[in-house]
Structure formats: structure tokens, C-alpha cells
Amino acid sequence: MPMNNRLLRPTTGLDPDAAQYLAAVEAADGEPLEPAVRTAINAFFRNLKATPGLFDAIKASCILCGARTIPGALVPLKGSAPTNNNFASPDYDRQTGLKGDGSTTYLDSNRANDADPQDDKHIAVYVSNVGTDSGAIRGLIYAGSGGISGSSGIGYRNSDGVSGFQVNCATNTFSSGLTAGFVGASRSSSTEFIYRQNNSNATALQSSEPPLATNVLLYSRIGNITSARLAFYSIGESLDLAALDASVSALITAIGDAI
Predict the structure, then answer these.
(1) pLDDT digit string (tens) for 27-64?
(2) How many CB atoms lie within 10 A of CB 89?
(3) Which helix (H) or strand (E) covers residue 97, if one does?
(4) What gap in Å lies between CA 65 and CA 113, rounded to an integer?
(5) How far is 152 from 60, CA to CA, in rounded Å?
(6) Cα(35)–Cα(156) distance, rounded to whole angstroms?
(7) Which residues lie below 8 Å from residue 123, measured CB to CB, with a gap of 6+?
């Protein structure tokens, strides 16, 4: 049976954390979600908890789609709610998430980059559409930048398809071919970290440094703001990127089918 079908198996009853999250989203939206959307989100919580340690490793996260409004989409799955900087209702699509404008729109996750241990950290996003920006690498999720000690982030440069990854280090590890879908990085070692894009993991041989003491931002890297559209983000301790990818990708597909 394909993994996504297995992940989206029918569930009975509401997971307690899913119930609390759904109630908060519906309160922010001012009306209930469709039953199929509620089912997709409930299945997501259960799928996260099916992999030992996965749900617990997530410390700050939002499902940036599914909800009826931006306030609903910014209700946190875990951790503090992000601060909205300049996003408005035309930027939001319930199936695919929140689109940056490449200029002024970003989220402050309100999760400090140094809140997680130096050698125990992950960052991840689901990219519905890669931005059309040119010039410098734009941040999808970032604290700091290349050349700044202890930075963590994922960014891309659309002009040549290069993506860059950092987890508590000063040097970007560059890759190529970033497309829509899950992208993440996780460090559980002082000498290397794992990054994932296009359904595949790779290893970056970058030694860790004390994490930069600044908040993790979405859609921005030291002011280089992206026009990408994101449907999910997660920040926290190290975890299995493939397992998170499977659960998040199944969720986005299910929400798209439900609306």
C-alpha cells in the first residue's frame, strides 16, 4: 500500500492535541472547519505520534493552510503563535498556504534559534510554490545568514536553482534543484547535519557552533524576503526528516482534496 494512503488511514475519535488545536483554529476563524479538513488534521496529529519522538521534537509549528482565515492559519500546532508582518487576506489560499510578496511580508516565529540545543535541532517548511525572486538567496526559514556564526536556515536563489542549508553553523551547504514540497534540515551531531529536499536526504559535513541568539523568521533571511508560498513550518529538536516529510506531505494532499 502506498505510504500516503497508509498515513491517511481512517481514524476514530479526535486525538486530544488535535481537538485542542481544531477548537483554537475554529475560534480564530469564527466558524467550524469542514469535516474532511478536521479529519485530515486529526490524522496528521496521529501520524506524527506514530513515529516515536517525532511529535515531541516539534517545539514551534503552524499548519499554514486549511484554516478559513489567516488568524486561523497562524494558530500554532505547537509553541508560540508567530507574529504576522504585513500578510493580508489576498496572500492566503486555504489549499496551498501563505504567499510572500518578496518585499515586506514575513513571519516572526517567536522561537529563538538558541532555544534548542546546539547539536539537537531541526527546521522545516513545506513549499507549495517556489518564489520567482532574483538576486540574493531568499529565506524560507532563517535565523542569521551565511557567514554569521551559529546561524540556522533554509533559503534558495531562483535565478540558478540553488538552495542553501545551515544548522547552527556559519557556512551554507549549497544544493540545487529545489522544487515544491517538503524541505528540512536536522542536526544530531557536532560534526554534520542532514538536509532533505525533493524526497531525498543528504549529509552536510559542517561542525556546529553555539546557536545565534535571534528569533527564527519565515519568508526572510536578513531582509531578503521570498515570494514563495508556504503551507507548513516546524522548528525544534532533531528528528527523522523522512518521517516528518511523509506526515506533512500527506496532510497537504488531504487538505487540498478536502477543500
Answers:
(1) 999 999 999 999 999 999 999 999 999 999 999 999 99
(2) 7
(3) strand 97-99
(4) 24
(5) 15
(6) 36
(7) 141, 152, 153, 154, 167, 184, 185, 186, 216, 233, 234, 235
Alpha carbon distances (Å) from 173 to 49, 140, 154, 166, 207: 31, 15, 10, 7, 12
248: closest CA among 259, 234, 258, 237? 234
Task: Provide the sign of the torsion angle of the four alpha carbons 153, 141, 203, 209, taken in this order.
Answer: positive
Q: Which of 180, 159, 166, 177 is nearest to 232 (CA)?
A: 180
C-alpha cell at 150: 551559529
Q: Are 241 and 186 in contact (CB under 8 A)?
A: yes
The single residue listed with the C-alpha cell 559535513 is 205
DSSP string, 14-43: --HHHHHHHHHHHHHHTSPPPHHHHHHHHH
Spatial separation of the C-alpha atoms in residues 116 and 77, rounded to whole Å:
18
Residue pLDDT, tens place only, 99-117? 999 999 999 999 999 999 9
Which grid cell is 41? Answer: 488534521
> Which burial class, exposed, middle or buried, applies to 34 when counting CB atoms under 10 A from its CB (0-12, 13-18, 19+)?
middle
